[in-house]
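Quick note —
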Amino acid sequence: MKICVIGAGNGGQALAGYLALKGYDVSLYNRSEKRIAPILKTRKIKLEGEVNATTQISFATTDISEAIKGRKLLMEVVPANAHREVAEKLPHCSKMVKSSCSIPEERRELWSSPTC
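Predicted structure written out below.
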């Protein structure tokens, strides 16, 4: 399955690395290049903790259109203050899995199930 992880903070990198370790084809998107610069070059993510491994993802990018192209599942791992920005960049019919434990009331309409 082709999966896109949106957000390359600690949680996003851990998720992308773990999914790649499990054999999934993973793309990683981040708004800023600074955080993903090493991954852009090597496509590698080092996992440390419960799982210790270095994995290779398909690619990382700052272009959300490129990141989600052909992906069957989008997994969002960004702070609450980035939800609106990410939602506005995605096509209306995107299937998104959120990793956040709660969505503020004013942002819930952004994540409702679309009818396509």
